[in-house]
Fold this protein.
Amino acid sequence: MDKQTEFVLRAIEERDIRFVRMWFTDVLGFLKSVAIAPAELEGAFAEGLGFDGSAIEGFARVYESDMVLRPDPATFQVLPWRDDGPATARMFCDIEMPDGSPSYADPRYALKRALKNAADLGFTFYTHPEVEFFLFKEPVVPGLPPTPVDSSGYFDHTPQSTGSDFRREAITMLEQMGISVEFSHHEGAPGQQEIDLRYADALSTADNLMTFRVVVKQVALSQGVQASFMPKPFSDQPGSGMHTHMSLFEGDNNAFYDASAEFHLSTVARRFIAGLLRHAAEITAVTNQWVNSYKRMAGGGEAPSYICWGRNNRSALVRVPMYKPTKGASARVELRSIDSAANPYLAFALMLAAGLAGIEGEYELPEGAEDDVWSLTERERRALGIEPLPRNLDEAVRLMERSDLVAETLGDHVFDFFLRNKRAEFNEYRRQVTPMELQKLLPLL
């Protein structure tokens, strides 16, 4: 028995924990949970916990349904909001087949495979997400416009506001679970908040994001409001993105930094950016996986619509931040298209795979865009070689289904299920009669 497993078993006894929740994620990024008694935990570490995979979205067909949850002791944390009764803890699980092999349907395993590819090249992949979301007054009625909890704007400081009280409690709870927060503030739209997680390796960050969503919704519930990670709840307000900063390290050295290079960007960094740009369109169905995601990217603001990169250019898809240009450890690139409703395991796996493809294929980085890309005409963008991102989920799915990079990174099972599910979502969406059609066309036609 390893030291981490021993620590968990000892902590369960010392802290009188009565329930242990096994957390895992389905292909679409929804968190699943099953609780076991502490007495069963040692057996779960040794043999795993069997379950019916056919009941989970995207996991298995009926005739191959037996699967096993294998808890990861490194992810053990006590749930801080369960203080009104017996203590409850959680651990993330890897999904295995009965023979002990990794499950082809486990999003966490897809990211682990991508991270191993990076490690084989000598790299560790770090991510730092800026997570935006909305707080609404309850009750939120499906089909009716929600009501934001405030009318504040970007960086507004309103004493004793719902948002600031919410952020303080959410951050306290996150840090109790070992999740470090770097910044928090009110975002640009009424009721919109942002909490930025500190840099961590990509697997830890993905686990942290799944925990983050639970904490945010739990704190909202306790305060009588509702939290939502929907990318674009309002037509006339900015949507919620998850700008994600990325870097590759070789040991203790940031592989993106070169003190002698232009903008201090190493050859590795330039090729990584080139890979993100070349493969951006085909990974968009995963980084922006909902029909609503494309409403956010159609509205300008700080959501990119075109494939280009720039320094301090917030209309660019990939931005090179210049906060500390001479500090090597802070060198990074930022992908601005991804939204906070994505499955972080699959999205990070594809972002890394795209960047590594650029490094291994020695892609050339095109010229950076210094103009506001939204203000250019279509002809000007074409002259600069700036292509659009997919305009809707249907376009994104059509590009994804032709992508060898996406199929290889996700594996055939996840790739096929994801495509089927997203085609069905878009077909359902196409059949909907929208309020805009009723408002504008019904009186005229």
